[in-house]
Amino acid sequence: MAGAGHTWPRWGLSLLEVIIGVAVLSCGLLPVFYLFSRGNMGTMMTRDEILAHAWAAELVDFAQAQGFDRLDPAANQRREVPVVAGGTPVDPRFRRFLTVTGQVLPPGNADWPIDYRIILAEVTWTTGGVAQQFALTGLVFAGRRP
After folding, report:
1. Is 41 left (phi over 0), alpha (psi -120 to 50) or beta?
2. Which of 13, 38, 49, 115 is a good FRET partner for 19, with 20 to 30 A between their CA atoms?
3. How far is 81 from 99, CA to CA, in rounded Å?
């Protein structure tokens, strides 16, 4: 009598064993996926910082190429400059601003022979929900006219 009271060997896994195996495997893989996603976020932040530096440098170069006389401090109080002539349009996630200030000499230096304009290029953006800002300064000067 082949089937009476005889237990055959089991060669499969029960559903409970499969569920426990998947849970253990996911607990081991979740930290790995977290590390990869954080590493990717760092790469994106670095890329955005490089782009911000390039766009700020382009804005400073453009302002310096304009020359001393065309940079009026009164007309350039933190104005937004999305694109410069012959330049690359800024990515919509980024905003860049140009500020030009006149010279500020300490008292007693009225006979200083050079006039200055200080250029400040600021780029703002958001990466991963965090507001970021990059600023780059430059200087334009000319001999003082009598």
Report:
1. alpha
2. 38
3. 10
Contact at 8 Å (CB) between 86 and 61? no
Q: What is the pTM of this model?
A: 0.69
Could you tell me which residues are beta bridge partners of residue 140? 117
In the chain, domain spans: 15-143
Query: Three-class SS of residue 98?
Result: strand
> What distance, in Å, lies between the first and last C-alpha atoms of the chain?
123
| Cβ–Cβ under 8 Å, residues 133 and 123 | yes
Look up residue 61 and give its two tokens.
Answer: 């170069």
CA distance linking residue 4 with residue 6, whole number of Å: 6
State pLDDT tens for residues 14-66: 888 899 999 999 888 888 888 777 777 778 888 999 999 999 999 999 999 98
Sign of the CA dihedral running 19, 20, 23, 28: negative
Nearest-CA neighbor of 41 among 124, 116, 130, 109?
130
pLDDT surpassing 90 at residue 121: yes
Q: Which two tokens stand for residue 38?
A: 């954080």
